[in-house]
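Attaching the record inline, Q. Sequence:
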Amino acid sequence: MPGRRAKQPVSPSHRSRQFLKVGLPVALGGFHTAGCISMLPVVPTEIQAAMDMGISIFAGEAEENRLDIVLRDAWSGTLKPLYNYVGDLPNLEGEPVPRLPAAALARNERPQHKLRPRPRVPVPVFILHHHQRAGPKSRFRTADDLEAIVRENYKQGITSFFFTDDNMAPNKHWEDFFDRLIELKENEDIAVSLIIQVDTQCHRIPNFIHKARWAGVYRVFIGLENINPDNLLAAKKRQNKITEYRKMLQAWHTSGASTLAGYILGFPGDTRESILRDMKIIKKELPLDILELFILTPLPGSEDHQTMWKAGIWMDPDLNKWRAGMAPPRAATPASRRGS
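Structure, as predicted:
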């Protein structure tokens, strides 16, 4: 098999083996498995090993009753080795968002992001916009979807939200979203606190920051990624102009919102000296409130992973280890993805 050169296939997790041992059907999915099937020309050795053991792989998204098919097959003992929906993207409009009680949300808030707007207030995470990693198609939720999600959670006393839109600024519905939240705030006293993700050009959009703050945005996450021009090209962040960083950050501070930026270390051109130099520049020139550092990691399903796989560079085949940047590559590669 071209690309991957693992000595032996790595078996699935111990828990999967336990289920199989007592005769229970097992299905696996998620970003890594689906991403590898989507991005690579053949099924990777480790995923094939799981299927050979009798584990079913689900690749793609489970909306439009697709999960029902898997559950019926599991009940009847006819699970297929692979359910591949990566080329069939469902519509997000009107799709329900999984509902969790407030107590469950409080236990499961992602601690690595340290996004705790208010003490003991859970932060539900939901997607307004999804961009397919392997293609140009974007799908969106509507303002009606947003209102329904906010109202349902508001009944539980949940008033803080993290919008996991990769970049709220180019979302063609951003103004509809903010206007709907403003209406709820002004007309029904349903006020929420929001964290959103934006790019470094968002301050150029007329009224974007003003309406964001009015709608309840108190913190913004910015994919700063790097300040070295060569690294930005490697990360395919041509829109990140370092001369614009300061203007954008000052615009958010003037509005009263705090800023949190992600920064990637480990590009091919990075050295100890260059990183220390860039950190000094950031501390001196950029008015950031929080800077989170990430290690450049070719997460399975990302373009980095695809590039290294095709180049035949060794990567740990155990997908259980690929989380939070815990499995750094032997060599760095362009087209960054955060290990986050």
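Residues 46 and 317 are 6 Å apart (CA to CA). The longest strand covers residues 217-225.

More tomorrow.
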